[in-house]
Amino acid sequence: MSSRSRPRDPREQRAQASPARRTALGVLRRVDEGAYADRALTAECARARVDPRERQQAQRLAYGAVQMRRLLDWLIDGVAEKPDRIEPGVRDVLRLGAYEIISSDGTPDFAAVNEAATLARSLPGPRGKGSARAGLVNAVLRRIAADGAARIKAIDPADIALRHSFPDWIARGLVESLGPADAEAVMAAANMAPESAVRWNTLRGSREEIEAELPPWLPDPLIPEAMVLQSPFALEDSAAWAEGRVMAQSRASMIPARALMPQAGERVLDLCAAPGAKATQLAALAGGEAEIVAVELHPARARALRDTADRMGAEMTVVEGDGREV
User: Fold this and answer.
1) Greatest CA separation for the chain
2) Which of 18, 15, 46, 16 is nearest to 30 (CA)?
3) What's the pTM value of the predicted model, to 2 decimals?
4) pLDDT at residue 15, rounded to an integer
5) Is pLDDT of 170 > 80?
6) What is the pLDDT of residues 88-116, one digit of tens each?
7) With 80 as the cut, is the pLDDT of residue 64 above it?
8) Most CB atoms within 10 A, among 11, 19, 176, 219?
9) How far apart are CA 162 and CA 172, in angstroms?
10) Domain ranges across the chain
11) Which CATH number applies to 197-325: 3.30.360.10, 3.40.50.150, 3.40.50.300, 3.40.250.10?
């Protein structure tokens, strides 16, 4: 039988990995090509038409793998026989699987390993390649499941940059500014999974007008516009989002604008302003009466920022350029 007509390995015809994991892998592949993780997630979720719960899991896995990339690669390279020869797609599968193992989200290690091996089989390539990829992923992740936690625990306490997967220069700056203990606390907090929260846009009506569209939520006494969602929700498919009445935004992201509390008539400069959560919140807090100047370097993100401002009814001047030269 010729190689052209040879049937595929039956193992390569098994059921696919979960939609959330396939979507998360798509996000990592896009990030490798230069995309921003948030925009990659939106594109992949739209392409795969995942439901809200699957989107939430895909976001957790993809964002976690991006945030912890340095530590994950250190774990992978420490057990792979030829780490420099791992294909980019296979490495992304390994990053997802390793993150799922070390994040202790309740998924059994064997399930995370099996799902990752299935993902590896699904990567494009020559016939028969899938089984070899799956074997590599299975071997590497089983070793990480066996001793990854111990290896992380054994990292030199002075190497907090590796432990928390931060670039060395940022870690050094934090230590110099805050001291080792507070710097490590900041890095640990930065790696926490984001909460599911939205901001009610006071420029587009009352909160009562959107409550019927949202799942159960909890308020925050210190941030009146914050709504912490208690279950997955397809926000960007909702009328409330399309009409600019809500914005996906964590409470941590809402604090800076609240601390500034702009007043009518004031002029506010927001640098690195895309995607626009803080800029539109600043406009809302001032009742639309402050002059908001939002600066964004990247043209595509500047266009998206303008679209967001229009949708949210937030008057502002969007400047496309380098904030250091404004």
Assistant:
1) 79
2) 46
3) 0.83
4) 58
5) yes
6) 999 999 999 999 999 977 889 999 999 99
7) yes
8) 19
9) 12
10) 10-154, 161-190, 197-325
11) 3.40.50.150
Say whether 197-325 and 10-154 share the same fold. no
User: What average pLDDT does the chain have?
Assistant: 93
Instruction: Name all contacts of 67-70 with Cβ < 8 Å and 24+ positions apart.
Output: 67/165, 67/190, 67/191, 68/99, 68/102, 68/165, 68/191, 69/95, 69/165, 70/161, 70/162, 70/165, 70/166, 70/167
Query: Which CATH number fits the domain 10-154, given the four candidates 3.90.79.10, 1.10.940.10, 3.40.47.10, 3.30.420.40?
Result: 1.10.940.10
* 3-state class (DSSP) for residue 295: strand
124 vs 211: CA distance, rounded Å: 44
Which residue has 């001793």 as its token pair? 147
CB atoms within 10 A of CB 48: 16
DSSP 101: H
Taking alpha carbons only, the member of 253, 245, 290, 250 closest to residue 273 is 253
Q: Nearest 5 degrees, angle CA 209-CA 214-CA 217?
A: 105
Q: Which two tokens stand for residue 144?
A: 């990480």
Burial letters for 129-163: b for 16+ Cβ neighbours within 10 Å, e otherwise? bbbebbebbbebbbbbbeebeebeeeeeeeebbbb
Report the distance separating Cα 228 and Cα 99, nearest Å: 25
Q: Which residue has the tokens 């220069």?
A: 169
User: Hey, what amino acid is at 243?
Assistant: E
